[in-house]
Write a structure and sequence with these properties.
The chain has 450 residues and is of the alpha/beta class. The protein contains 18 helices and 15 strands. The strands form four sheets. It has a five-stranded antiparallel sheet with strand order 1-12-13-14-15, covered by helices on one side. A four-stranded parallel sheet has the order 2-3-4-6. Bound molecules: zinc ion.
Length: 450
């Protein structure tokens, strides 16, 4: 290829996103994580198989247009993941030509059962309503995931499966152990939202008498194949455990800010030997899947955390997290994340004539701090041009937009009653959960100098 006037970088790797989020883009504002979870049945509910495919495809199109060539996707189906549902999502990535690790999010408790005391705060009528939101028994979820792992027909080099017990305390201990066994049996990854919000951190201590990370460690889940999503409320001992076990954190600064969860300490993670990847999280909670924005925020958030500039992450560290760090979290280290002999040809070509690069003073600093996706000209994945001259070559984006509008209308209709239920639940959750988070919770990682 003639690449004169172009800057090449390895495809960005989104270490944490959600396929189902893309049809729910922009549906909320001023939502805490707990209010987002409350809204889940409304904004992600009643999806048909083609809508599951469509939602994944929308995200894949956005990601490739914004220089991202692989992702770790925690997709959701209720009451349990299905072989067909996972194939529908997986085939969306295959059709766009993007790499993905697809980990169905599973739980055997509702959000309302997972938070001690929350059920009691609901009226009897609301208690009866949320009973109906209960996921399938865990054995059903495990059996369905096992079937999907066995019967997977997509090229595993491109789209493979993993297992995502969604939030530790939303899963019984026997379910968590079964997830770990399943992942071990099939040699695939495990991914979980751990200590994302202060409410979760406090609930972990209340339920288990130890942190969520210590709980997972004691159940045997931590290892090089394990990825923590977020980890905003990890303490030093948690990070040490993750580092010692060779685990990863998918750091999602955009989502953490958007949901008011706080600022994850990437410097402390690196100091404890944790592998750090970067993610955007789902479009239902951070509204875009732009990995350039995730890089810029990762850098800025670190710089906003303390006055000691030696502790700020560097643009180099952020760039490595968004590429090689993500590759390791996806279990694809040594194969993607670098432009080097022996690696897959997942390459983004940036237009050096774009104003983002005029003038070109420092390629790493501008890659992390200036680039916003606007200079992406071509994207190659596995040697195939998936974006050429800013256009996706593999799918008809105009047709996709028409399908998305039709889906939006249908879903607004069929989910109207669920929306109304969520709106009745929101004031209770909105009062109860911040109350839980008002207790002191010390994250002893680093104390700013005297
Ligand atoms: Zn997430």
């Amino acid at each position: 290829m003639d690449a004169r006037g172009l800057l090449l970088h390895p495809g960005l790797i989104n270490a944490h996103t959600h396929a189902h989020g893309n049809l729910a883009k922009g549906m909320g504002d001023r939502w805490t994580l707990e209010l987002l979870l409350t809204a889940g049945p409304w904004i992600s509910g009643s999806r048909s198989l083609p809508e599951k495919h469509l939602s994944a495809k929308l995200g894949a199109v956005e990601m490739v247009l914004k220089g991202c060539t692989a992702c770790y996707d925690l997709s959701f189906e209720w009451p349990a993941p299905t072989v067909e549902g996972l194939q529908a999502v997986g085939s969306a990535y295959a059709e766009v030509g993007m790499r993905a690790v697809l980990a169905p999010m599973v739980a055997d408790r509702t959000f309302f059962e997972a938070i001690p005391g929350l059920m009691d705060a609901l009226t009897p009528a609301l208690q009866r309503d949320v009973e109906k939101l209960r996921p399938a028994p865990w054995k059903t979820s495990v059996a369905n995931m096992r079937a999907a792992l066995r019967e997977w027909t997509l090229d595993r080099d491109r789209v493979r499966l993993a297992v995502a017990p969604t939030i530790p305390h939303h899963c019984s201990d026997e379910f968590l152990r079964a997830c770990a066994d399943l992942a071990r049996e099939h040699g695939v990854g495990l991914h979980s939202h751990v200590a994302e919000s202060k409410v979760q951190a406090v609930v972990g201590l209340e339920r288990y008498g130890k942190t969520l990370t210590a709980h997972l460690d004691d159940l045997g889940l931590l290892g090089p194949h394990f990825t923590v999503a977020h980890g905003v409320w990890l303490d030093a001992d948690d990070m040490q455990r993750l580092g010692d076990r060779g685990a990863s954190v998918a750091h999602n600064p955009g989502s953490n800010l958007r949901l008011g969860n706080g600022l994850a300490d990437m410097r402390a993670m690196l100091e404890h030997g944790v592998n750090v990847g970067l993610g955007t999280d789902g479009a239902n909670c951070s509204d875009n899947l732009n990995m350039y924005e995730a890089m810029r925020l990762a850098s800025l958030v670190s710089k906003g955390q303390c006055p000691e500039r030696e502790r700020w992450v560097t643009t180099e560290e952020v760039a490595v997290a968004a590429t090689e760090g993500g590759a390791r979290a996806l279990g694809l280290d040594g194969r993607i994340g670098r432009l080097a002999a022996g690696y897959k040809a997942d390459i983004v070509f940036l237009d050096l004539g774009h104003v983002n690069w005029v003038p070109l003073n420092d390629s790493t600093n501008q890659f992390v701090h200036t680039e916003d996706g606007a200079a992406v000209r071509h994207v190659m994945i596995g040697g195939r041009m998936v974006v050429e001259d800013r256009r996706v070559t593999t799918v008809d984006v105009a047709a996709l937009a028409r399908e998305a509008e039709a889906a939006r209308r249908r879903l607004a209709d069929v989910n109207a009653a669920t929306k109304e239920l969520c709106e009745r639940l929101a004031p209770v959750v909105g009062r109860f959960c911040p109350g839980l988070a008002r207790v002191p919770y010390r994250v002893a990682r680093y104390v700013s100098g005297p």
